[in-house]
Each structure stands twice: as C-alpha cells, then as structure tokens.
Write a structure and sequence with these properties.
Shape: globular
Largest sheet: 2 strands, antiparallel
Order of helices and strands: EEEEHH
Oligomer: single chain
Bound molecules: zinc ion
Helix content: 10-25%
Strand order of the largest sheet: 1-2
Distance between the termini: 45 Å
C-alpha cells in the first residue's frame, strides 16, 4: 500500500500554501504558517494539522489504522462538547 507522505497545508488565515513531509510514526499537531506566522492547531475532531488543513490526510488515516494510533486520543471530540478541564 502506497502512503503519500507529502501534504500541502493551506493556511486558513492568509491562504499561504506550504508543502510538508509527514512523519509516518508521529503526528504534527502544530504548524506555523511561513507567511503570517499563525500557529495552527487541528480542528476539533481532527488528529493533526494535515487532516484539518492539508490536501492529504496523515498516514494513519490513509491506512485506516486510526484505533489508538498516532495522536488520535480516543473518541473524536465534537466541537460543541469539547472537554472542560474544570473539575
Ligand atoms: Zn498564514
């Protein structure tokens, strides 16, 4: 199975595009836009910036091996029920 490890990220702030190489054994959680220096984080429910802003999802998602793999921490979290840290 071929896994595409290059993904083009598109900045949602200024639309700058940047080609990044995805590590297959780790996930990239933050990406700093080279143009406007915005520090991008994945959208709620996405495991990494490639899934949120890239044209190719991260390797674990491509292989369908998302159960406990890479940085996906259990259940995807809906945007309206983001866990509250207060206890
Ligand atoms: Zn930007």
């Amino acid at each position: 199975m071929n896994i595409e490890t290059r993904s083009t990220l598109t900045c949602p702030v200024c639309a700058q595009r940047g080609l990044e190489i995805m590590p297959v054994d780790a996930c990239l959680y933050f990406w700093e836009c080279p143009a406007c220096k915005s520090l991008l984080k994945p959208k709620p429910g996405d495991c990494c910036v490639f899934c949120s802003y890239g044209d190719v999802p991260c390797p674990p998602v491509q292989t369908g091996n998302t159960d406990g793999a890479c940085c996906s921490l259990g259940e995807p979290v809906p945007a309206d029920s983001f866990p509250k840290l207060s206890k």
